[in-house]
Amino acid sequence: MNLKEVQDQIVEEFEVFEEWLDKYEYLIELGNSLEPIDMKFRTNDYLINGCQSKVWINAELEGDKIIFYADSDAIITKGIVALLIRVLSNRKPDEIMNADLFFIDKIGLTQNLSPTRSNGLLAMVKQMKMYGMAYHSKLNN
Amino acid sequence: MSLDINKIRADFPVLNQKIYGKDYVYLDNGATTQKPQQVIDAISNFYKHSNSNIHRGVHFLSEKATEAYEGVRKKVQEFIHAQHEHEIIFTKGTTDSINLLAFSFGEKYVQEGDEIIISAMEHHSNIVPWQMLCERKNASLKIIPFDKNGELELDKLDALLTKNTKLLAVTHISNSLGTINPIKEIIRKAHQANVPVLIDGAQSIQHGKIDVQDLDCDFFAFSGHKIYAETGIGVLYAKEKYLKEMPPYQGGGDMVDRVTFEKTTYLEAPFKFEAGTPNYVGVISMGAAIDYLHSIGIDEIIAYEAEILKYATEQLSAIEDVIIYGNAKKKSAVISFLIKDIHHYDTGMILDKMGIAVRTGTHCTQPVMDVLGITGTVRASFTFYNTKDDVDKLVEGVLRVKKMFA
Q1: For residues B206-241, b (16+ Cβ closer than 10 Å) or e, as one string?
Q2: Contact: A118, B405; criterion CB under 8 Å
Q3: CA–CA separation, A112 vs A128, rounded Å?
Q4: Does residue B35 sit within a domain?
Q5: Which of B343, B400, B404 sits opposite A74 (nearest CB)?
Q6: Residue B230 domain boundaries
Q7: Domain with B327 in it: what CATH number?
Q8: Is B196 helix (H, G, I), strand (E, B) or coil?
Q9: Do B343 and B303 reside in the same domain of the chain?
Q10: What one-character DSSP code corresponds to residue B179?
Q11: Which of B353, B354, B361 sits opposite A52 (nearest CB)?
Q12: Which residue, among B165, B188, B21, B169, has the nearest Cα to B98 in the 3D structure?
């Protein structure tokens, strides 16, 4: 699936929920099913700043694609990062760098996007794009 | 309970709306209080009929605005029972008040090797300005610790008060634990050692009667927005003798006596400390807010909030796995808690979706969380417009959270 298709799929999944609480119930489910990150990455080096809950993100290059690993001490945050991984992981660096993440707005998470919002969604997106940028320049040097 | 809650709630437009389709339960009064229509009207009417810069013009509206502004100074003086009107300095808020003091007091009285005492339960705004002062002057910060119930360990205070101590700055009520500190005793001890005391009244101003003369504190800081007035307005009360000696904090218009390029002389307090056009509309709103509080009755508010706190503590304690942080004997209507194994952020997000506003995180008291060994709490802070029904909804919310994260 390309970037657009996977985001469309997520939007569709969230469309069935009429109640806010149900959306969050689903995020909790996603959070619970996200594979925990290796403990060695749960350190300050991988910590995203600016979140009320802790978020650790690691990225590794496999071939010409980036694989993301992430974790959080809060389940909802973990659910949000699980969605980001589903959209951005296993893609080429330049694709990640330039990704238009329209699903965030469509599923109603935009309220979490302002710079000081406590879950640091913006900081997570920024960090993942930074990884994209870093690996992009690495691959092209 | 002698308050007419339905009538009071009708005064607050914000409370009478739906959030996510649910009745709004606002339990974040420690962060800011909502505004009654009376305050909103005062602001709006001032702009409609009286707006003009104060202390400037000879024209009708300027004089009217100046009169209103100075009238509130008098009102605040009475509200906190200060001896003199000119001991009331208008600032941007508690943080600004403390920064003003840290600068002006620091310039006059603090030198290398001196010490400032604060407590381990201070809000960042009563830590950082003192740290900055200590860095500037090569002075050091001493900390009064607190125990597992969230009470200050006053037996350790005597040893902290030395000949080098220049000031003791302590919060009246902890914003994250709810502890009401025995400030009268602290002030007495400090004065015995000739140390002046600043009381951070950010949390206490909305919950009780403040009498700065009875307390005998030397400085008292609070914000308007925590007593139902606008944001961006606050007060620093300071005893006259200090106001005379301390240099101004900021320079500008409205605080000067005579300006030449060689030398400028300043006006007396309070004007010396109020450079530039002040937030005079904020001041007007504070006057209206104080009137509003009097119309309800401070004693009635105190009694009502005590009952809400008791009820909320009982109800929340009864839920299995709820841990309350801050169990001081004397507490204000603030409950910090966690549900075992559930992150405060997760709890807060779900409560939000149920229309319940609480605060989560460290509440600007990271050292408190470090002492407790946690990353944050969920904080429900109540005021006189909250009801037992609000508490019941919070309890229902907590049970729902428990179920969702089980």
Answers
A1: bbbebebeebebbbbbbbbbbbbbbbbbbbbbbbee
A2: no
A3: 17
A4: no
A5: B343
A6: 40-294
A7: 3.90.1150.10
A8: coil
A9: yes
A10: B
A11: B361
A12: B169
Q: Residue A53's closest CA among A90, A27, A15, A26?
A: A27
Range of the domain at A102: 3-139
Chain B residues in contact with A119 (beta carbon < 8 A):
345, 349
Q: Per the CB < 8 Å rule, is B375 touching A21? A: no
The residue-averaged pLDDT of B363-376 equals 94
Per-residue pLDDT at B158 exceeds 80: yes
From chain B residues 349-388, the ones with a CB under 8 A of any chain A CB are 349-350, 353-354, 360-361, 375-376
Q: Which residue has the tokens 């008292």?
A: B220
Q: Looking at the structure, do residues B147 and B85 belong to the same domain, yes or no?
A: yes
Per residue in B76-107, pLDDT (tens digit) is 999 999 999 999 999 999 999 999 999 999 99
Distance CA B123, CA B129 (A): 11
Average pLDDT of every residue of chain B: 96
Which residues in B lie closer than 8 A to residue A24 (C-beta atoms)? 349-350, 353, 404
Distances in whole angstroms, Cα of residue A2 to Cα of each of A79, A87, A98, B37: 21, 9, 13, 53
pLDDT tens per residue across span B379-396: 999 999 999 999 999 999
Q: How far apart are the first and last CA of chain B?
A: 38
Q: What is the ipTM of this complex?
A: 0.89
Structural domains in chain B (count): 2
